[in-house]
Amino acid sequence: MMPYLPLIMWRIGGMGNVYDYNYGTKFTDKFQETIERVRCDFDRTKVELLRERFLLPFQNWCTKNGVLSRAQAYGRGYHPLESSLVVDIPEGETWIKYGVGEEISETDYRIGRAYTQANKFVSSGAHLSGKRLISCEECTNTDMVFNATLQMIKLASDQSFITGITHSVYHGFNYSLKMRHFRGGYGMGTI
Description:
By secondary structure, the chain is of the alpha/beta class. It contains five helices and eight strands; from the N terminus they run αββαβαβαβαβββ. Strand 1 and strand 2 (18-20) form a beta hairpin. The chain is flat, with a radius of gyration of 20 Å.
């Protein structure tokens, strides 16, 4: 794979999105096919490693210790449907941008939409494995951070619920404190 590494990695920008799929040159069809096959093998290996070295050990640890697992195990390295078959509480995420009700922009697909595609895969995987509790980290990326109106939060939550989400979490985080008072409590906190 090493000789092909510079050719299988695209230039990326914000949030890991591919900045440009063009290399600035054209390869022969045969060489382009080789690059695509190496890229496919590379991506498949990343998916297998995420499952083998994170998702399954994490789930096994949770089961062994008598706690339910909750994870947003998807993104560039793993598919949300497959991860939702494994974790106890699959979790999606809803981002919402202002512009709900406006015409969808040709230049920014996020305006006025929630991140419902991942949520639908998460809820589908959960339902396929008989899970009824499907959480969603709500409203984590709005144009007006910490200034989202209740109307926008409700619109985002409604979009989550229609994709199969059954439990909204407005933000989840883990923390571990020595035994001292903290307004959020001790152990694992969810706001």
